[in-house]
């Protein structure tokens, strides 16, 4: 996706005209640059089309972009937009920002800041805000996961199981170790529950996190994540590789573990391509894509 020029945290979605728009974080001249790319051959090749935001890396944590086209044709990009002390690197302020493009990703403008909440290292919940005006304004927050327990939930991804049923996959840190979990909603996200373990690595002192899930590929749910369970290096995130799991029962059980990228690979994501295949994207020295075919 990045033509060998580095970059991290790749994410992608389809545009209405059939091409794929991708986003990742590039690093240039001491800046984080949220970069947009496009593929017209189902993810086989990519060309850069624009940048959405740029900020000095020492004073800003500009990262984690996610593109989505609205029914109106406008494309939104949501991303983390945290402020840091330029000298010490300590975080000063946390926010999520949304920018918009009305020309399929070529030029971008600021739209809104749906979240600017303080975070706690030991007890972090997954929250949801809704917008009924294309992302200009947002509702108050409701909790998706983490309420009533002490855990650091985060890196949430949501997919449609069927009808009004949704599934949200996320990482959770308890006792110093990360696992992959999910919750479900039967009413289009109004309420959530049924917290469930998706994956915990074997061995001791190993982690699994940064899931992206879980596109519905012909009735099969898929989730990507990274884990150091194979390398046993015990220096998370060092030694992580990128894997995938599938579920044929709506997320109740998961199996068919597949390694897609070898160590060191980070921050993977998925996109349903058709009824049997998907591009699997990851930071593998640069933002790279593998095609996975389900059998």
TrEMBL record:
Q: Which SUPFAM superfamilies match?
A: Sialidases
- CDD domains tied to this protein: Sialidase_non-viral
Q: Which organism is it from?
A: Cryomyces minteri
Q: Which domain of life is it from?
A: Eukaryota
Q: What is this protein identified as?
A: Sialidase domain-containing protein
Q: Which InterPro entries match?
A: BNR_rpt (IPR002860), Sialidase_sf (IPR036278)
**Which Pfam families does the UniProt entry name for this protein?**
BNR
């Amino acid at each position: 996706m990045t033509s060998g020029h580095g970059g991290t945290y790749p994410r992608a979605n389809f545009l209405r005209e059939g091409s794929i728009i991708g986003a990742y974080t590039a690093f240039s001249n001491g800046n984080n640059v949220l970069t947009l790319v496009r593929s017209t051959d189902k993810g086989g090749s990519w060309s850069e089309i624009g940048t959405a935001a740029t900020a000095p890396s020492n004073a800003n944590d500009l990262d984690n972009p996610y593109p989505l086209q609205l029914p109106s044709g406008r494309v939104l990009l949501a991303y983390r937009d945290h402020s840091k002390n330029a000298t010490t690197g300590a975080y000063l302020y946390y926010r999520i920002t949304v920018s918009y493009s009305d020309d399929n990703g070529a030029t971008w403008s600021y739209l809104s800041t749906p979240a600017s909440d303080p975070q706690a290292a030991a007890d972090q919940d997954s929250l949801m805000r809704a917008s009924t005006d294309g992302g200009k304004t947002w509702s108050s927050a409701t909790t998706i996961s983490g309420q009533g327990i002490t855990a650091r939930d985060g890196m949430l991804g949501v997919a449609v199981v069927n009808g009004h049923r949704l599934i949200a996959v996320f990482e959770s840190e308890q006792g110093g170790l990360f696992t992959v979990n999910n919750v479900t909603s039967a009413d289009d996200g109004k309420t959530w529950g049924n917290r469930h373990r998706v994956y915990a690595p074997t061995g001791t002192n190993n982690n699994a996190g940064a899931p992206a899930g879980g596109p519905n590929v012909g009735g099969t749910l898929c989730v990507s994540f990274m884990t150091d369970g194979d390398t046993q290096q015990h220096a998370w995130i060092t030694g992580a590789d990128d894997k995938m799991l599938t579920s044929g029962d709506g997320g109740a059980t998961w199996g068919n573990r597949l390694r897609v990228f070898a160590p060191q690979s980070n921050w993977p994501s998925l996109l349903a391509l058709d009824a049997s295949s998907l591009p699997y994207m990851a930071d593998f020295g640069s933002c790279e894509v593998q095609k996975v075919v389900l059998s």
